[in-house]
Amino acid sequence: MTRPTSEQHPGASNGSNGSNGSNGSNSSNASNVRNVRSDVVIVGGGAAGLSLAHRLMADGSATVTVVEAPDGPLRPPERTWCFWEAGAGDFEEAVSASWSRLRVHAADGSPVSVTPSPFRYRMLRSGPFERLVHARLARSPGAQVVRATADAVRDVGDGAEVDCTLPDGGALTLWARLVFDSRPVPVLPSARTQLLQHFRGWFVRTDTEHFDPAVADLMDFRVPQPRHGLAFGYVLPLAPDRALVEYTQFSRAPLSTRAYEAALGQYTRDVLGIGARTVEAVEQGVIPMTDGRFPRRVGASVFRIGAAGGATRPATGYTFAAVQRQSRAIADGVRRGRAAVPPAHGRRALALDAVLLRALDTGRIDGPAFFTDLFRHTPPERLLRFLDGATTPWEEWGIGLRCPVRPMLRTAVELPFLRGRLRAAPAAVPACEESR
Known about the structure:
Blueprint: E1 35-43, H1 47-56, E2 64-68, E3 80-86, E4 95-99, E5 101-105, E6 111-114, E7 119-125, H2 126-138, E8 143-147, E9 149-156, E10 159-165, E11 171-181, E12 187-191, E13 194-206, E14 215-220, E15 230-239, E16 242-251, H3 257-271, E17 277-290, E18 302-304, H4 320-335, H5 347-362, H6 367-377, H7 380-387, H8 393-400, H9 405-414, E19 421-424
Parallel strand pairs: 1-2, 1-11, 2-8, 5-14, 11-18
Antiparallel strand pairs: 3-7, 4-7, 5-6, 9-10, 10-11, 12-19, 13-16, 13-17, 14-15, 15-16
Helix pairs in contact: 1-2, 1-4, 5-9
InterPro entries: FAD/NAD-bd_sf
Pfam family, one: Lycopene_cycl
Protein name: Lycopene cyclase family protein
């Protein structure tokens, strides 16, 4: 299960994410701007930062400053975020494509197609999303976007300060009652299991009409499987002759670019049989899949949000929908005078994810068979609610009975006795969220 979003990007540890190009928000970039005060400062203008700014400005109850990295190496390239949703959402204007049918191909080639009504699977590209939110912020007198590199965040007596460097080299200090930081963490939290979801994708155009724009292929296991973990293809048709095609692995280490290219070539040629094609754009990324717990409060007035605040679902990599839940809850708390970042996923969902990650990492379960059977035997609407952590214990019991019971039980019994280990964060994180 893929497509999370993440706030991380290669080289972004000292900066903040933002959109590509200029924006229409109330920007403060002049060299005479040195000190700014607001109710809330949001560090990072990616999915998590802009979603929170959007929620906070909905009723104008707080003044908000968003810090976005200036043009240069700290700004991420265009990314793709995918999620499922019932009905039209807040960002419908920016949705690039959506699908009412989902499909998984088993390792033997047999397809499993589902129609998870009322949900639709949606693709959101970061550029249109950021332009949409910037335009909304520009209409809010209490919002501003500052183009600067965030260097340090610290508590002060009555709030918190963010030290920044402006594009001209000048210093800027932002003060706020509350700071929400979406920058990547340099070290992942202690975890018993950590896998990586790593991928490379091509936006392809074919010479003939090859794709069905009504069906999204979430997992296609008709690819060679690695000795450890699992691999699959991922196809999101944009038109009969256009699609995003990815090769993804769940494993302990990413591949070289050459290895991804070879795998994509084999998949498009030998499995999809698309023939002549043109690669119009490329995406590549890495998403940590860990049972570690991300701290959400790191100071009296400083909080982490998005992937840095634990919004990525450990067993799937999906993040965008959790970011929306988290943002709504934070904004509601701010309006009520309560400062908190609630967990993006419930305890039961995280416990189930920890068992699945360990079972996959130890090889006790066959990953392709597990995910194929999950789609084959679970009602599609219930399956998506399960992946969102919105099912009841009784529904989860029924899903569990269709899983490999013995290896899962063995893993569940073993987990409390395992000790966590610290690991450095991966060097590159997704173009997709969250893509995922």
